[in-house]
């Protein structure tokens, strides 16, 4: 079962994403800057998971609903379509299922356990992802607005790398480069690219958030 190198990160969804009046979940497509492709989701939790994968520097490509597993547990036929397939920079394949922890019942846990065993057999990893914690979720949602290359401006980016060679408050550093309305989108783009770093976990990004050049960056 040597499936580990198959390009499932390029696969089209094996089923459609339903959208109808009155439905309780939200479906849509997320544009992944990593692979420059549209990735489907069936809930805000899945959308946030796709966003976090897109932000992960180890990820080079991802796809949604990439394949369907079918099996029998001795009593009934079972089936499961994982939410995402991810290709890592080192070539590893990762299957991702998204479900808040409080919604993982016994039946779901059995499905995830079977999926994890299949992944192990073919040389993939398996991840179960739940809700992103705030304020990390809020910060990623904000930075994701600036993930597109149109937010990059080389002269401003070069100056930002110089200015933030040592930690500075976000707004004070941006204003050293130029007009904040022009500079902040570039700053947020570099944060999304992780050329600049800041604490995204313990508090929402703000004017006083300390920002610095990432380790290994070139001021």
UniProtKB/TrEMBL annotation:
TnsA endonuclease N-terminal domain residues: 56-129
Nuclease among keywords: yes
Entry keyword set: Endonuclease, Hydrolase, Nuclease
GO molecular function, one term: endonuclease activity
NCBIfam families in UniProt: TnsA_like_Actin (NF033179)
Protein name: TnsA-like heteromeric transposase endonuclease subunit
